[in-house]
Design a protein that fits this description.
mainly alpha
Length: about 80
Amino acid sequence: MRDTTNHIKKYISNNKGKVIGVILGLVFAILVLSIGFFKSLFIALCVFIGYYIGNKFDKKEKFLDFLDKILPTIQK
């Protein structure tokens, strides 16, 4: 049993991208089947936006600088 567990851990550590992709695909498929395609797409969009904003904060960028980049400037 320990050998199997170690083999699974080694496989996951060597194939992180594949494992994450499979898990995300499974979650998206379950969401589509349970709440519908467009609601699932909206959830995925919100998660992506949240990730993007969180990444900006992790890089110590200021929120106002972020807003200046995405919102148009008003000129008088």
